[in-house]
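In the design runs reported in the main text, the only information available to the sequence generator was the tokenized backbone. The following block is the verbatim input for one such run; it is reproduced so that readers can re-run the procedure and compare outputs position by position.
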């Protein structure tokens, strides 16, 4: 199973109303399956600030977090998602391991 599918599968534990996991590795110089963006909409984020939401996602992913380099997270409750409807675009890579 590719990393993107493994991340999606793990995040299913949050019972997301909406889930998008995008492989953005092509925007970086580190190779394949290293950079991901996840848009997670879940009732489980209600009452949590962004740090607590991210901690919840990291805990849900567990050891999987050590198998890729970067994860851009966009977390919303269903109510917030209904208002915004889309996550912000990812910025271009700021560097890293360019050779």
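Verbatim output:
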């Amino acid at each position: 199973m590719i990393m993107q599918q493994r991340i999606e599968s793990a995040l299913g534990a949050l019972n997301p109303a909406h889930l998008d996991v995008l492989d953005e590795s092509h925007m970086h110089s580190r190779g394949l399956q290293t950079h991901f963006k996840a848009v997670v909409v879940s009732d489980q984020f209600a009452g949590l600030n962004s740090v607590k939401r991210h901690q919840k996602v990291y805990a849900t992913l567990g050891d999987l977090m050590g198998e890729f380099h970067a994860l851009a997270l966009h977390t919303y409750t269903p109510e917030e998602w209904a208002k915004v409807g889309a996550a912000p675009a990812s910025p271009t890579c700021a560097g890293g391991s360019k050779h």
